[in-house]
Amino acid sequence: MDIVLLLKAAIMGVVEGLTEFLPISSTGHLILAGALLGFDDEKAKVFDIAIQTGAIFAVILVYWQKIRETVVALPSSRQAQRFALNVVIGVLPAIVLGLAFGKAIKAHLFTPVVVASTFILGGFVILWAERRAPQATRVASVDDMTPFDALKVGLVQCLAMVPGTSRSGATIIGGMLLGLSRKAATDYSFFLAMPTLIGAGAYSLYKERALLSMADAPMFAVGLVFSFVSAWICVRWLLRYISSHSFVPFAWYRIAFGCVVLITALAGWVRWDAA
User: Residue 153 and residue 82: Cα distance in Å, rounded?
Assistant: First the structure.
């Protein structure tokens, strides 16, 4: 067993868990961490997607009571039925557009300029969203969302197919701009993440199964465990944080990280087009 490889898998798991649900783009951070660790071959790219499942299990654990209550009430409760329908509606655009344009986006948009631009532009969008008047909020809870609200946020989630955008950033900030409260947008982002990322991880493993063998099981297991633990800590912290803070610090972080992308790319330290 390669201890160094397992250590790299653990570090990548921590990076994934800490960045997946913050509006700062986990993909960009995984690329940078992978480049620094020399963990960026084809198998590592599959690993990066697969360990998202560990982070999702953490979200499922945090929201287990809401999930359980919804499933139990589904046969008889209109509210539970509407909530479940809203999650399905929100996921569909990513499935359709991902299958239609995923390969083209990966082939043509994963360049240093695109990644850096989306980091920086996303930062300014967050600053703008946080400066909007409080009365612009019309949806206080995920249970108050309409199917049309779900569709709009689902379409916004598709922006995350562009490298550096951040899935959570697109859905949370997009939801806020569409009239959701910070809490409602964050909760709905987490619920959308469950089917979206589990599906993406399963599809990636199936598609690239020829690259994998049973010898890789310990590496994936370590990555999943560390992704789960770090994501659980991060999600619980984020839910407390948003109750009394804005996303402005993340905006400035995105802008700074966008500059890092450009500098590392121009210096030849990181191959941002290798993902």
Answer: 15
CB atoms within 10 A of CB 187: 22
Residue 225: half-sphere exposure toward Cβ, Cα within 13 Å:
10
pLDDT of residue 133: 64
> Which three-class secondary structure state does DSSP give residue 3?
helix
Across 73-96, average pLDDT: 94
d(C-alpha 126, C-alpha 255), whole Å: 10
pLDDT tens digit string along 98-146? 888 877 887 777 777 888 889 999 999 999 988 876 667 889 999 999 9
**Cα–Cα distance, 202 to 205 (Å, whole number):** 5
CA distances from 138 to 87, 144, 156, 186, 241 (A): 19, 9, 18, 15, 21
Q: Which of 271, 222, 244 is nearest to 9 (CA)?
A: 222
Location of structure tokens 């909007």: 132
Residue 252: other Cβ atoms inside 10 A? 12
Give the count of beta carbons closer than 10 Å to the beta carbon of residue 106: 12
Structure tokens at 70: 């919804």
Is-contact 138 179, C-beta < 8 A?
Answer: yes
| Best CA proximity match to 222, nearest among 54, 62, 18 | 54
Distance CA 38, CA 20 (A): 21
- Cα–Cα distance for residue pair 155/174, rounded to 1 Å: 9
62 HSE (CA, 13 A, CB side): 24
CA neighbours closer than 13 Å in the CB half-sphere of residue 41: 6
DSSP state of 2: -
Of residues 126, 128, 160, the one with CA closest to residue 28: 160
Helices (H), strands (E): how many in the chain? 12, 0
